Amino acid sequence: ARKALTGDIGVVSNPDGAVSPFVRFGRSYRHPNLEEMLFAGPATVGAIAPNLLVEPETGHNIDVGIKLRTGRYSGSLSYFRNSYDGFISTEIVAAAPGGPLSQAVNFSDVRIQGLEAGGQAPVTMAYGSLTLFGTAAFTRGDVRAGVNPLTGVSLAGTPQDNISPLKAQLGLRFSD
């Protein structure tokens, strides 16, 4: 079915203005894009074949965390878990003389979960302010039910490819 009920509902508490625990539950829907359905041609490695039969993915998403704000400093820490039905993934479906042939396919059940943290600290200077900021995320994806389209072997219990396991960013921002 190419329709779904989506939305988010959440609760944020902020009793003292400094600590804000939160929880959010959501339902997601992603229709395959035109490239996943219709594009045929060369890719980074091999080629991509269109797939008019790829179905939309739906998900159940939950976030739980805490945000802290003390004076000018702020930070956050959260855990998320997204469970997808019909997860859309581009996978190798055939071995061809010119290289592998990839196509968008659906996996029955995929879970992506992780931890995210971030913070920022501004420093006031004579000509403006300098803000040090940073974020970090640890993410893991698991195929809970799905089949390798090339070999037909079950992928249940294996890591979901194309999920960056660790991402971090540090920076400085100057405002006058």
Describe the structure.
The chain has 176 residues and is an all-beta fold. The protein is built from 1 helix and 10 strands, in the order E-E-H-E-E-E-E-E-E-E-E. Strands 1, 2, 3, 4, 5, 6, 7, 8, 9 and 10 form a 10-stranded mixed β-sheet that branches. The longest helix is centred in the N-terminal third of the chain and has 5 residues, at 34-38. It is elongated, with a radius of gyration of 21 Å.
Task: Please specify the SSE layout and strand pairing.
Elements (H helix, E strand, L loop, with lengths): L6 E6 L6 E12 L3 H5 L2 E2 L4 E2 L8 E14 L2 E24 L2 E27 L2 E18 L12 E2 L6 E10 L1
Parallel strand pairs: 4-7
Antiparallel strand pairs: 1-2, 2-5, 3-4, 5-6, 6-7, 7-8, 8-9, 8-10
Provide keyphrases for this structure.
176 residues, 10 strands, 3% helix, ten-stranded mixed sheet, single chain, 1 helix, elongated, mainly beta
Unreliable runs:
none
Overall shape: it is: elongated
Structural class: mainly beta
Sheet of most strands: 10 strands, mixed
- List SSEs in N-to-C order: EEHEEEEEEEE
Radius of gyration: 21 Å
What is the count of β-strands?
Answer: 10
